[in-house]
Amino acid sequence: MKLIMFMGGVETLEYFSMEIARYLEEKGYEIFWYNLLVGASEVSRLKGFFDANKSEDFIAFTFNHEGIAGEEGLYFLDSESVKDTETECGQADCKDSLNSQKLASNPKLTNIWDNYHVKVINMVVDHPLYYHKYHKYLPKNYHQINIDKNHFEYMRHFYPEIKNVSFLMTAGMELNKDRDILPDRPYLFMDERKYDIVFTGNFTPKYILQKPIEKMGQDYIDFYESVLTRMIKEPKETIEKIGQEALIKEIEGITEAEIREAMQTMSYVDLAVRFHYRELMIRALTDLGFKLTLVGEGFEYMKLKHPENLNMLGSGNTKKCLDSISQAKISLNVMPWFKAGAHDRIFTSMLNGAVLLTDSSTFLDKEILTEENCVRYSLELLRDYEASGFDLGLIEDFGVKLRNLLEDKEKLSKMANSAYIFAKNGHTWKDRAKIIEKLFYT
């Protein structure tokens, strides 16, 4: 069996892929790395790999539809479509002018994965509603992994034609797993860590997120803003529940197919509520006087009362994020709107010796989080803090608890050790790769 994996796309996803590949290569699998940056010229090299291994079975593993999103070279008109196109254009070279727009509009497409009978496994680490437009490109032999149980149910409900769908949590990354930085221990001691609290991520203000729906008109803006308002007020609810209820209320007689189509525009709400609470948590911490180190982009757009409490390190790749977390006493996580899954920041914080500070869910409380391995905060508390006009009295107790913890190095160390042991024994990409490998043979 031979494998195909992808590089040159989203940097974080490539990092995840490299972590998975490490285990697979140890098991003896040969991996062809398809470079998405090279584009169509990479296809001939891939075909050579297929032709040189004709007796083998092939598996392609990817994240977030990379390589199965209609990319030129990997997707092309089938022979019958080419004949039709030549007739319509009146010239043979019309077929050479294909671009992504034409590919997207032409239903008679084939792809290299089907031509070479490749099984494609796609791990989607965002909500599936973001990828509705790519479903027309799915290979015939396709398996989708979802990192949230609600996403899994969403796929089962709205895409029953996709038969092979499963759930698997994301995982964490350990900077010092090879002991090439600290040979005698997995991570820095608490008194060696220079940052009190670190957050790795990005921020996009609402006025930028809103630009796509502004083109749709004021009625649409008002509709999506009403959905966002409800999401902010009810932070335990999911985007799929509130989104569907809003569509059914707004459009009399809307069909399941129409809901499926309309849900992709709920990406605005999903992103806006995520960044809203991200800003609220950072505001709360800085209002309480905590010094917060940020790795990522867009934080200058946040409306904060005390921006002087921020230490902004600028944008950074995965390695820079890991470096920063590994030097933090506490690592802040603000969940994307996953209510039955985890974010990799949870496990990465644990694997690098930082105490996790996170919002939670029923799923996380049951499967992952304990009093011994993390500190939890409430989205409802942040909601009420904003509604009060930012009355510090509402969050004072939380601030005292967090400050006492930062001053108690022994307790911090015990929590970090408990979390490290937990994550190391079941929540690394090697652990996930073992499960993914089983899908090769099903």
What does this entry look like structurally?
The chain has helices spanning 11-26, 43-52, 79-89, 100-105, 112-115, 149-158, 206-209, 211-214, 218-233, 239-250, 256-263, 267-287, 318-326, 344-351, 362-367, 379-387, 396-407, 409-424, 429-439, and strands at 2-7, 30-35, 58-63, 75-77, 109-111, 119-124, 142-146, 165-167, 195-200, 292-295, 310-312, 328-333, 355-358, 374-376. α14 (344-351) links the parallel β12 (328-333) and β13. The two termini are 13 Å apart. α1 (11-26) packs across α19 (429-439), α12 (267-287) packs across α16 (379-387) and α14 (344-351) packs across α18 (409-424). A six-stranded parallel sheet has the order 2-1-3-6-7-8, with helices on both faces. A six-stranded parallel sheet has the order 11-10-9-12-13-14, with helices on both faces. The model is unreliable at 80-104 (pLDDT under 50). It contains 19 helices and 14 strands. It is of the alpha/beta class and 442 residues long. The longest helix is centred in the middle third of the chain and has 21 residues, at 267-287. It folds into three domains: 2-171 and 433-439, Rossmann fold (3-Layer(aba) Sandwich); 190-205 and 271-426, Rossmann fold; 209-265, no CATH class.
